[in-house]
Design goal:
Blueprint: E1 23-25, H1 26-50, H2 63-90, E2 92-95, E3 98-101, H3 102-121, E4 128-137, E5 143-150, H4 156-183, E6 185-187
Antiparallel strand pairs: 1-6, 2-3, 4-5
Length: 189
C-alpha cells in the first residue's frame, strides 16, 4: 500500500485477538509460566534502569507503565500457577505400584533428589587402619602420626547401590509426572 504525504496517517488496525483456548495441557501451562517468568525478569531489569535518572534526560521506558505491565504479568503468572496447583492436587498418578496425587509425586521427587545429592556428597573414609595426623607436633614442629582405625557407616559399594536406587525412583516419578502433564488439561477460564 502506498501512502501519499497529503493523506493523514492512519495507524494499522490492531492484530485480531487470538482466542485463548479454554483448556490446555499442564505441560503447555508450565511452558507458559516459564515464559511469563522470563518476561517478568526482563521487566525487573527495565524497572531498575528507569527508576531514577539525572538531569533532563528521562529514561527510555516509563517507570509507572513498566510497573503496571509487570503487575499484570505477575497476576497472570499467579493465576496460571494456581490453576496448575489445583489440577495437581486432584490428578492421580501411578508410581511404583502406588497411586498418589501429582502434588505428592512432585514433593516425593524433590525429597528423593535431595537425598540423592546428600548420599552422593557424603565424605566416605575407607575402612581400616592407617597413619593419620594426631593433631600434635613433635619438638621439630613435624606432625605426629599414629595408626588410626577408620570406620564408615556406609561403604562405596553400599553408596553406589543407594545412588542407583534413588536415581531409579527419581526417574519413575519424573516419567509419571511427564506423562500426566502431557495428558492432563487445565481450565483457563
Amino acid at each position: 500500500m502506498v501512502r501519499y504525504a497529503s493523506e493523514p496517517f492512519k495507524p494499522l488496525s490492531p492484530k485480531p485477538e487470538v482466542p485463548v483456548p479454554k483448556r490446555i495441557t499442564v505441560s503447555k501451562a508450565l511452558r507458559e509460566a516459564k515464559k511469563l517468568k522470563g518476561e517478568i525478569g526482563v521487566l525487573d531489569a527495565r524497572l531498575a534502569s528507569c527508576v531514577s535518572w539525572s538531569g533532563d534526560e528521562k529514561p527510555e521506558f516509563d517507570f509507572a507503565e513498566t510497573r503496571a505491565l509487570r503487575a499484570s504479568k505477575v497476576e497472570a503468572l499467579t493465576a496460571l500457577k494456581t490453576k496448575i496447583a489445583c489440577s495437581n492436587a486432584v490428578t492421580q498418578v501411578e508410581v511404583e505400584g502406588r497411586s498418589m496425587t501429582v502434588t505428592e509425586a512432585i514433593r516425593r521427587m524433590e525429597e528423593t533428589s535431595g537425598e540423592l545429592k546428600l548420599i552422593e556428597r557424603l565424605p566416605l573414609e575407607r575402612r581400616g587402619t592407617r597413619l593419620a595426623h594426631t593433631g600434635a607436633y613433635d619438638d621439630r614442629s613435624r606432625p605426629v602420626m599414629a595408626p588410626v582405625q577408620f570406620h564408615s557407616a556406609l561403604s562405596e559399594v553400599e553408596r553406589a547401590a543407594e545412588v542407583t536406587a534413588l536415581k531409579a525412583r527419581c526417574e519413575a516419578l519424573n516419567e509419571a509426572l511427564e506423562d500426566s502433564n502431557h495428558q492432563t488439561l487445565v481450565d483457563m477460564e
